[in-house]
Amino acid sequence: MMVFLLIRLALCMFGLWISLASCAKFGMGRKVGAPKMNSDFGATGVPPLLRTKKAEEGVAVTPGGNTTSAPSGPASTPEDEIFFTNPDDPEASLPELSTVLTFEKRRGPWEESASIAKQRAAREGKPLLIWFTDSARSPMCKALNQELFARADFEPWATEKFIRLRVDANIKVDDPNLSLGEQGDRLISLKNYVINLKKQYKVLGQPSLIVLNSSGEVIGNYRGYKSGQADYYWGLLKQCEAVSIHHLKEWRTGLEKKGYREWRDLKDRKVFAKLTRYSEGTLTLIEPDGTRSRTKEEKLSDADRAWISEQKKLRGL
User: Fold this and answer.
1) What is the extent of the structural domain holding 287?
2) What H or E segment, with its residue span, contains residue 235?
């Protein structure tokens, strides 16, 4: 009987040992909430195939640790974006008005730079005519040029009434001062320039004529041309010019109430701007588009110098 009881006790002890081993194997004996440190995917729990480098085990992510803070201090600003000014004359870096009003010499009656054409239109108070053309492949573009733009009576009228910009899809770069690589870069730049202007004004074909008033608003958009329509197109341009004059008067009247006026230099070049600073014969001017420049009183027209003299008297200077 005693032997039988000892055998049963041994069997019970053996069964308890089997149960504890099974619980440990399946994690039932692990403390609740304790992290499992020996992951098959490493400390991050990210499978190897999804890591940047398969050989890396990764770094465990801590709360807030996956956000990279932006650098601060002077080292975060590129050196070429730091501008130093003279504290005694903060406007010393402003360009001279004579330089601002001097444009690149044109090869003909049509401007080739959109930025220069827009600046001239704003400063001279004229509408801007943009001609999108393909001088090499479009017969209608050639007809428009021959029947209207090349007419002897159209040229002086257009010079007086409009600023003109030609955007030609036929692009060539033939500059002996440029290397082959530089010519290639220049060609790509010009092609992108044409593409961007077409997108800006939604031009889908050539020829197309876009007319802007002096403040940059589109007042005319004409696509296509048929031989014999020269007088009709000229009439459209005359109508746009009349609309632009009416808009210019309203636009300038509003700005004149804010202190803007037309200034002229000794070469009769003019600019519509506001005087923001006067000091010992030096004037600082700002145009409606934000362009700022400075000039000497002695370089201005007689009418402008008389206006300055009057303003000095009014202020007791």
Assistant:
1) 260-314
2) helix 230-256
